[in-house]
Design goal:
There is one protein chain. The chain is of the alpha+beta class. Among the domains are: 183-247; 252-490, no CATH class; 506-564; 676-790, PH-domain like (Roll), CATH 2.30.29. The protein has 21 helices and 35 strands. β30 (713-717) and β31 form a beta hairpin. The protein is globular.
Amino acid sequence: MRGIELRQEASVDAETREFRPKKTAFIIPRITAALVLIGLVSLTLVIVALFAELYAVLVLIPLVALGVLLPAVYAANIAFTKERYEIHSDHLVCHRGGLLSDGRTELDIRNITHVRLRLPWLRHRFFKIGDVRIESAGSAASEITFQSIIGPEAVYEEVQELMRRHGFSLKRTQVLHQESPTALGALVDIVQTAFGAGFSLLIMAGVGLGALEEMDSLLSVGLIGLFALGSLVSAIGGLGVRYLDLTRRTYTVHDDAVDYTEGFLTRDNAFIPYENIADASVKRTPVDQVLGLYDVNVSCQGSGSEIAFRRLSRGEELRTAIVSLVANASQTARLAVEAPAAPGEGDPEASKEAASQASASPRSQRKLVDPDQAWTAELRMNLTRAIASTVLGLPFLPIWVVAVVGVFIRATRTIFTVGPNSISSAYTFIGSKQMDFAYDKVTGVQIDRNPLDDFFETVSVQIWSIGSSQPLTLPHISTDTMDLPALLRQCGIPSAAPVLGELEQSFGPKVWAIQNVFVLILLLVMTLGLGGAASAFGPLPLLLVPIIAVLPAIAAVTAKFRTDRQRITFHSEHLEAQTGIVFRQHIHVRYDNIKKVESTQIPLTDQGMFKVYVAGERQVQQQQNGAGVKLPYSLSGAYIHGISAKVDALDALMLGRIEASEICGTHPQNEDVVSVSKPSLANELVIMVLVGLLMPPIWLFVPIRAWQLKVRRYEVESDRVVMRGGIFFKGVTSVLFNRIDSLQQNQGALGKMFGNGQVTILTAGSSAPDLSIANIPDYQAVYATIRASYGKAV
């Protein structure tokens, strides 16, 4: 690899490079926790020996050291023997494991979204080692990190070259914008960090002073003083390193990539290809507003892939450059799809690049609107409609007034801009926030209406993106200013597309009762219990019986009205779903953004539930560390007739085997099954039995779980993976090969014991696996079959 020593093992083939981490650099971080534990235990024993004069306890120090360190070193050595990385011509592989586990993760070159090179300060200086982290459009579990390898810069360049061969541009012929955090911005960051550190030091000082009052030993006072001095020096040193780290960061927007370097002692170099930038946003706190500072966040394709460029003075210019970059990517994709150069005509390199980009991802195949013909507009909320949404708070006057003021500020200070290549939302008041979504990264459009919207003639629109953790919402927009067909068209949904097929659905008391049979049985038991209580304590408990009786009636009537207003229709390029009684939703999703399909059949009927998962997800609960609960975008329907064939039919439609007009016909089940696997019962049953030792009621569910596993099977077909199962409610889950972003193979302790393992499938834009083929004996063969097939599916 360009004249650098890599200490490789023999290559698997001429197209494969294999790497191992440097042993000492790999092992030391893995035994650090053991060393810290030994240090804490040793310090505790020394303190006990000094204050209690029990010097015999010092004998325990070497015993503890050996007892903790030897197992840690052994486990780290085992992990090292299993850790290796492979670079193939079209994919990367990471082999990993531990004492009781083995794992393998594969990532196709075409799915890479973000590559980072890390050069740890001392380790790189003395051993020339570093880490290369490669991320994809799937979850964090699909990342591959080449840890502690010699010559990491060469691997970093090799990955870039492979990406170029697979259609990524990465030429960097022009710099659109370059910027670093300002000294003022770095100082503000340091001050904010210092407040937290200072608070911790004050608490520690208080504890120390309290301890001094109880101690008269000069040694004790000296130890506490030394600890306090060390903490102060460490805090000041850490803040200094943080300041130097911020001021040495550089963010560069090229014409086909975003590059950035970070770090003072430990250095990071990273890049994002422009093909995979999903959106950009600007956030400013009130302090930032006063000081003229910006934080710019860039999202790659995939959940949780937001990258923050912080403390900038020209953040708006950086955002504009990134938006321009995304527009260029969209334009290139549009030209590649609409007018690809014929072989041998024009510029051969440009033709090759356009063809590669056109096939790089299903999402690039959408027909984008020419910017010259795009609808552009500047939209604002309807103020009256926005304030009307607070009407329920009117009885609580003080709270209502606060709510009205908040809504007024939000409505008057928010502007939505519909551009030729992207749509943006900008809010500016005390703080500010701006978001830009590129049309070619949009995965769905949701249109919401309710009676207030009907009265005020308004509509709310949510734009789903593969890269953002939140949809871009345009609430309370007047219909006379909103051109919905044009907006849908620019998001890849053809306007005025005829309905070619519609799922047949109907509500009936029988099917509803069967679906809710367990709830009805519970209500019946409660009613009988109330009857028994009435016979023992008097008629008062019988007053609850009418309430229990009316609850299922209300639920059934609601289900009836919801089903009557529910429609799932099929067009040539997209699926459309309408649902809701009072709060109505109208969802449009392109077929090439559907990543997984599920169905559940209601017993004794041909009806059931149908659910379609779309690339991307929303974060519904924010935590202080930025994490939260994430839900995938989806649409669903209930009481669908012929549900057993609907997953197969939709898959056939997305694969181009049938037309949308044939979706509601009768289709034979795909007989092109390559392999069928059934899960082992032993793994989960052993866990349930062991847990049952602490909670014996768990044992009651062992037969049910055994039955569930007995009827489950995993089918690998020529173009998809299907899970079928269910005791009473038969379920089907399907993932097409051309939606797979990354693949994993794992074998844990129980898997080794019982001779089985797991294959995990990940698709783009999700933080969790889409399908886990768990505890199957032939997991290696299934993994190899899927691996050989899904790379050819796109």
